[in-house]
Amino acid sequence: MATEMCWRCLFFVFFLLGGSAQDIGQTRFICTSIPADMDMCSAAAQSGSGSAEELKNSVLQLRETVLQQKETIMNQKETIRELTAKISRCESQSMAEPFNGEGKVGQPGSRKKETAGASKNTMGDLSRAPPADTLNQLGQTLQTLKTRLENLEQFSRSNSSSQISNLKDILQNKIDDLEKQVLSRVNNIEENKPNLKNETEQRGKIESTLTTLHHRISDLEKGQRNNLPGDKFQLNFSLRTNYMYAKVKKSLPEMYTFTVCMWLKSSATPGMGTPFSYAVPGQPNELVLIEWGSNPMEILINDKVAKLPFVISDGKWHHICVTWTTRDGVWEAYQDGLLRGNGENLAPYHPIKPHGVLILGQEQDTLGGGFDATQAFVGELAHFNIWDKVLTPGEVYNLATCSTKAIAGNVISWSESNIEIFGSPTKWEFEACRQIN
Length: 437
Description:
Distance between the termini: 104 Å
Radius of gyration: 38 Å
Oligomer: single chain
CATH class of the domain at 233-435: Mainly Beta
C-alpha cells in the first residue's frame, strides 16, 4: 500500500514538472535513504518541493496569461463589432440618393416647397457625423488595434507562449480584413463626392441660419436684462450644480444683531438647498440658511443651528425673514409677514464677523468655494436684503404684503450693481407685489 501511494506521489511530481507518460522511460530515478518511520510520499514531496513549487507558480502564471489574453480577445471582438457598425453607417450615407440639379432629393419637381417637417429632418441630419469624420474614427480605431497587437507581440516574445502567438495571428487577420473593408468604403465615398457637394452646401446654409438666430435671441435677452430696473429682478437657479451661483460684491461688517429677508420660490426635493451662505476666514458656516435633504430649513451661526418652521417648498413665492441678536442668541422667523417661530441660545454673544464672502445659491466649505452640488439652491430668489438691526413685526408684515414702499437693507440691498453672477443663473424681471395679488 505504501509503495502504491509513493508511485502516485512520484507521478504527481512528474506531471507537475511537465512530463508525460511517454517520458517515463527516459526519466532517471534517484534513490535516497529515508528513516524507517517516515512516510515515503512525504519524503519524495520534500525532496522536490523547491522545484515543484517554482514550476507550479510558472503554470499558474501561464494560466493567468491565457485568461488575460481571452479577455483581450473579447475586447477586440467588441471593437470589431463597433467598427462594423460604423462602416455600415458610412456605406449607407455613400449609397444615399443623389441630388438633382434643383438641389432636391429624388425626382425633379417632387417637392416644390420646403416644409416644417423637411426642415426638422435636415436639422436632425446635422447631428450625424459626416463620412470624413467616420473614416477618421475608423482610422484611429485601427491604429489602436495595431498598437495593441504590437504590445501582444512584445508580450509573446517575453513569454514564448504558443497560445499568445495564436491570438496574435487571429487579431492580425481581423485587422487585415477591416483595413480592406475601410479601403473599399473610402473608394466608394470618393467616387460619390460630387453628389455629396450639394448636401454639404445645404448643411452649411442651415448651420449659418441657426447661428444667426442664436445671436439674435442672445441680443434680445441681453437687451431685456439691461432694461430691468435696478432692484426689480430675480435670479433663477434651475439646476443643482456646484458652479451656478451669485456673489454679493459687498461683505458684512461686524454685527451684533441682524435681520435678513428675501423672496423664495422652489419645489425642489429633497430640500431646496442653500439660498445663501456667508463665510469668513477659518469659519465657512458663519451665517448660513439651508434646507438639505429631508431636514427642515435651518439657520447656522458660527456652526450653531436653529431649526426654522418654514413650509415653502410648494412651488409658490414666499417672503421669509429671520431676525437675531447676540444677546442670549434670541431669534425670530417670519413667513409671509407672520411670526412662525422663535427661540434663544443661538450662538449667544458671538458677533457676526466681518471681511467674509457672501454667496447666493451655494453652501461654502471653504472661503468663497468648496461648493457641493447636493447642497445647491434650486429655485428662484429675489429681494435679498440685510439690516444690522431687528425689524419690528409691523415692518416685516409691510415688506411681505407690499403695504408700504419697500425699504432696502442698510447693510446689503437688492441691486444689480451689488450682484456678480457665475455659471449663468437666469435673471428675469420680478415685481414683489404682483406675486401676492
